[in-house]
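Please fill in the sequence for the structure shown.

STRUCTURE ENCODING:
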């Protein structure tokens, strides 16, 4: 068996980053961290997660994250499964983080995308079935996000409140 243990992300500010991820993952905690030096640059790091999975945040990030509307090489997004997407959306909304976009209408899943304080795109998905062939079915989607230049027009799926 192979599974993803952690993602290691360079961020601008650990406190701002934790505000977003603590709202998304209220059951996760800071597992550890310390000050370190990375190629001559002093920086701090923390592990934020549970006993099985975590995110590493390293501060002192410089510059901007990649343009998510381009084909620039780099991380496009990463995703987490949730059992209650509406509660997750509400927690993030109360913490001041609105969704960036809502996924396409699909009878087997609901998904929503956020941009964290560092420009990383995170997808959250709630599956409405345990049957893998249905979870991974894509032909019943209706596209809900349309793009015009740098402006987005949305037609939200019926489940989004």
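FILLED IN BY: designer on duty
SEQUENCE:
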């Amino acid at each position: 068996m192979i599974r993803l243990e952690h993602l290691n992300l360079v961020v601008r500010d650990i406190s701002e980053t934790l505000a977003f991820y603590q709202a998304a993952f209220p059951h996760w905690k800071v597992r550890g961290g310390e000050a370190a030096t990375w190629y001559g640059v002093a920086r701090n790091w923390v592990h934020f997660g549970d006993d099985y999975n975590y995110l590493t945040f390293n501060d002192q990030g410089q510059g901007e994250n990649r343009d998510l509307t381009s084909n620039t090489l780099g991380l496009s997004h990463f995703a987490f499964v949730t059992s209650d997407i509406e509660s997750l959306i509400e927690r993030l909304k109360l913490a001041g983080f609105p969704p960036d976009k809502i996924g396409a209408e699909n009878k087997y899943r609901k998904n929503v995308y956020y941009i964290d304080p560092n420009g990383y795109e995170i997808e959250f998905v709630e599956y409405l079935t345990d049957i893998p062939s249905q979870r991974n079915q894509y032909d019943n989607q209706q596209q809900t996000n349309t793009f015009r230049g740098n402006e987005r027009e949305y037609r939200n799926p019926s489940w989004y409140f």
